Amino acid sequence: GAVVSQHPSRVICKSGTSVKIECRSLDFQATTMFWYRQFPKQSLMLMATSNEGSKATYEQGVEKDKFLINHASLTLSTLTVTSAHPEDSSFYICSAREAGGAGGGAEQYFGPGTRLTVT
Amino acid sequence: KQEVTQIPAALSVPEGENLVLNCSFTDSAIYNLQWFRQDPGKGLTSLLLIQSSQREQTSGRLNASLDKSSGRSTLYIAASQPGDSATYLCAVRISGSRLTFGEGTQLTVNP
Fold first, then answer.
1. Fewer CB within 10 A of the terminal residue: chain B, N end or C end?
2. Closest Cα of chain A to B18: distance in Å?
3. Residue B109: CB partners within 8 Å, gap ≥ 6?
4. Which are the contacts of B52, defined by CB distance < 8 A and separation ≥ 6?
5. Cα distance between residue A106 and residue A114, in whole Å
6. In this complex, do A43 and B89 lie within 8 Å of one another by their Cβ atoms?
């Protein structure tokens, strides 16, 4: 299957600083990318959906000024956590999907995740 | 609002056993359904994708079925192995872009 990479895999930062996480689709063009957050022993929570060249669509309750998403190319999306606080500590997972797909919808591929710890 | 439920929440079986994981969803107007596997501290690995027009998909020891009318999908794992131990997530895609995930089934295969 297709590969989605994320960088960094782990990051520790101090409260008040900003952190950028990169998500890349390595062997396909991702017209749509997604950012999820996952708390321990819980399922994934969708934060936002972005289409290449457009502004991201944020889910209810997700602060767009805090979680800045850029999807400037068909293979790269970035999530910047601004002015991070300890409660932002979580596992962030990106996902990518190319357009189309036989019969209804393309398969969605996930990155390996980024563990963010804010001290 | 689409809701996805997975039963059981956890399952422990001896190696070699065949097993079935269940997924149900409330809105049958889906585009597709995906089964994923997640190992601790890792991202998701896509196992099988079933389009709304399909009834089942197979990959190796895995077989997933889809019954849209009843809002159900099953993931059948044959001859389970310790390496199959992971959390299995099902997710459905309805109109628009988003996937709606179930809470997952945590599978442990004991050697």
1. N
2. 25
3. B12, B13, B14, B15, B17, B80, B81, B82, B83, B84, B85
4. A103, A104, B30, B31, B32, B33, B66, B68
5. 24
6. yes
Mean of pLDDT over chain A: 90
Nearest residue of B to residue A99, measured between CA atoms: B97
A21-50 pLDDT per residue, tens: 999 999 888 888 999 999 988 889 999 998
Q: CA B80, B85, B90 angle in degrees (round to 5)?
A: 95
Number of residues in chain A = 119
CB atoms within 10 A of CB A103: 11
Spatial contact of A97 and A106, defined as CB atoms under 8 Å apart: yes
A32-38 and A19-25 strand pairing: unpaired
pLDDT digits (tens, 9 = 90+) for B58-95: 999 999 999 999 999 999 999 999 999 999 999 999 86
| Cα distance between residue A31 and residue B58, in whole Å | 27
Could you tell me the two tokens for A106?
Answer: 């393309």
Reported residue count of chain B is 111
- Inter-residue contact B6 to B21 (CB < 8 Å): yes
Out of B43, B46, B91, closest to residue A1 by CB: B46
C-beta separation of A107 from A96 below 8 A: no
